[in-house]
Amino acid sequence: MANSRSGDSVTDRIVRIISAFDGAHPSLPVATLARRADLPLSTAHRLVSELLRHGLLQKQAGGDVRPGMRLWELASRSSPAGDLKAVAMPFMEDIQAVVRQHTQLSVLRDDEVLFIERLSSRGSVLNHAKVAGRLPLHVSSSGMVMMAHSPRHVQEAYLARASGQGSAPPPEELRRQWAVMRQYGAASLPGIVVADTTGIAVPVFNASGMALAAIGVVVPTGEENISATVPALMTAARGISRGLGILPPGFPIE
User: In the chain, what's the furthest Cα-to-Cα distance?
Assistant: First the structure.
């Protein structure tokens, strides 16, 4: 129920406060938080005080606030992402032992790639993907391969939204890339996010044969070894699907 002059509810305002934090702004002064959440300063102070009292925010030594440990605790208790991560981790560790660069697990959210987990080795190449961080769908091999294996109406809805943004490739080019990825079963994008690196990803399928997640690697360009990496990722993806109960126990993963 809305209970403010602007028509937004308390829940709306709390969500905007929590969403104001990101990788570039892990903690914020209340005045900045109010501005980023589009709230009057007095309202922000009142809601922040309540969130601090419940441990959903915590105050830093200098007076800034940041998401609290209890927020993480509550989110982790019964999270679908946690279930996916728990099943995927052994397969990710196997992949990482071979590539010794970056191995990551992701899902699609709001036209972006949300990274659930990432394993990295010392001295590995630069990688902008961070756990609980996001990247635009069209710059990520994981995002592209998930969209390639999404229902047609989902693809067309995304194209309609992305066509007005100007940063994504033209719809006809995206459709062409997705067709290739569906045929090949994997996506490989060199030098899109970071020069001299290549992202390779395959979908983790649900029971309907559509992508529910992606497992991928980021490696130096020129060291991709596609012929070995893609089959290994596909084996891992099938193992994750089976571990989630999507594939029957006897389904081969080799």
Answer: 60
